[in-house]
Amino acid sequence: MATHELPLFGELVRRMRTAAALSQEALAERAGLSARAISDLERGVHQAPRLETVRMLADALRLGDADRTDLLVAARPDLATPSTATRPLPLSALPLPPTRLVGREREIAALRGLLTGEAKRLVTLTGPGGTGKTRLALAAAADMPAAVMDAVYFVDLAPLADPSQVLPRIAATLGVREASGRSPRDAVIASLEGKRVLLLLDNVEHLLAAAPAISGLLAASDGLSVLATSRAPLRLRGEHEVGIQPLLLPDLTQIPALDRLADVEAVALFVQRAQAVRPEFALTADNARAVAEICVRLDGLPLAIELAATRVTVLPPAALLARLKRRLPVLTGGARDLPARQQTLRGAIAWSYDLLGPDAQQLFRLLAVFVGGVTLEAVEWSRGVEESRNREEGGKREDRGGSERPTPTSVLDGITTLVESSLVQRVEGPGGAPRFRMLETIREYALERLAASGEGEETRRRHAAWCVQRAEEVSHVKRQALLGNPQDVVELETEYANFWAALTWLEQTGDAAMMLRLSAALGGFWNLRGHLSDGRLWLERALALDDGTRPRERAMALVWLGMLLASERSFTLMDEALDLARAHGDRVGIAAATVSRAFATFHGRGNAELVVMLGEEALALFEEAEIPWGIAAARLILAKAAQRWGDNDEATARYEQLVADVREHGGDEYMAAQTFQSLGALAQATGKAAPAASFYAEALNRFNALGDLGAVAWCLEGVATASGHNHPAAAARLFAAADALRTAIAAPMSPGELPDYERAVASVRSTLGELAFDTAWSDGAEVSLEDALAEARNIAAAP
Length: 799
Description:
By secondary structure, the chain is mainly alpha-helical. The protein is built from 40 helices and seven strands.
């Protein structure tokens, strides 16, 4: 759409709203805006709406990519220039806050000015908890023009406890897959090369020891800028600190007229949040002063105002103000060495906590140990452990002569109470499943209450027990698949912060058995998702702490550590695992160690005779124990061995057996993906281009579902190689897309793969000619991964 043809933004909103059959009020409710705001936008009152507002409207209208771009360009016509029209910053690149940001126009404009200026590449928003640092940072980042930044990434550091994990978390957010021999720092720097990227690092204050690592990224990446939120500055050279002040407050000596009072930031926030829980609430002549005084007494702190506003469901503003007056000593009674506003915030949270019943308070304390959110089922499981123990210890508490604690209400009722009290947030997890999490400031208070209750050790033990049982249930070796189901992988990734917290606590308390169980259960996840440094860290620590009472778990931990290290030491670890399993008669452990030893030998030492011997031994053991994933793994290594050492007939027969098992019984997706990938390579090597492309495409789909982007790049190259003769232009685009993906995830091709790859690319270049090849390569380098996957599937299916 050319600039001169653009409709006014308001007119476009009106047309899209009408097409969606929505009234202004209905659109406002969906978008989390006021009906007046929608009316003002459609009438052109706001000539340059915030990009955050545009994103909220686009989501509420459920627009497709093209319509989203039209709406964005209508709001920012400068984005329609030839250099930017095809790639404005995506409207969904950042987490979408559940409510509209109130006020802060000056701060957003100032931050945008700082971040677009060449001299300010590190900006840190500082202030106590509850001032809205994260919310403001998101709004400023969302307003970044595409002419200035190629991409913006939000990195949530709140769940981390170890500064050494900041770089791996950044790498994961950027989609960088770790590779052996390359540090997370080097991988991130490689992925940033030639790009203009803004990293929003949220909640840095507890990880200040990572500041030099952040400085190192800035020094090595000219196009990188960092916007950090922290309660303390990072104290780095070149840092520009911006202190976030409370919202603007009304003047109590001269209360303005209602329309002007409603526009004061603190009052506007109170009214918005009050209407969210009580739609009929309105600012009136009768309650105006009480509302103004509430905001002043809460010092204009956004979180404190939000917590207070939710109480209008029970208390009118005058009664609410009176309660705050009675609580004033508590609201200002925090530790003397804390900032005054933090004392006020603690009082606001304490007040909301005190309004809960005893059982909801206990649930609030339990939720404090879950990091990064929790499912309803996990909370129910944790409560079930306690309630089962109570029954075992003598039945109902009433029978022991007193009301030690009320009979627990349902977890669902308790969670509902906490959400309605604004102490817990409901967020959307994978697949739309609800998760529940606390703001970090509230979680800090909950942890204080947990420590004061004397329940801390038992609650953390229950949390760790849940983490162990969940990881083992998803990853246990006796299952049909060894972490090969995409849903399993997504679940473990979602709960990763909880697993990290549990491992940390188990190490601190010296619980060697539980720590070993959890780290061994996560071995497959660390390997598949490329969390190599994390896996090595925890497996080493668990093995060092191990007291030798769980030989099965120790053997599995040794096997996984060997696989993650992928070095000469791996053979020593796997030999130790094998000896341990044999000494304790653990036939499944013997089989697992044996097949892992076979893979390590195949990749590391190339001893054909030994690989076959180990593979056949493992296959017999797995078949005897009826372990489907193990049978598949053993057959796969034997097929790979036959293929590498020239017996293509045997390799084909073994691969076909694996395919038949997958087709008939399903099973481990990772093993299936590896099988189809290997079949593609075998067909390619024997001159069967069409079957090779088909096998690669099937492997591509499976690896993509599992999130293994390194294997996705390999399969894109495989389809391109197999299709180069019949579809040279498409092959060139796929080679380019794979190259861009490898650069993005810092996963370069191994030296051994380069000769065949370079021959395949040269062949396509020769077929197309230099000009056509360069054009196709440029096109492929710019396409999204989704488009590259679609083209690979299409040419694999073509004759």
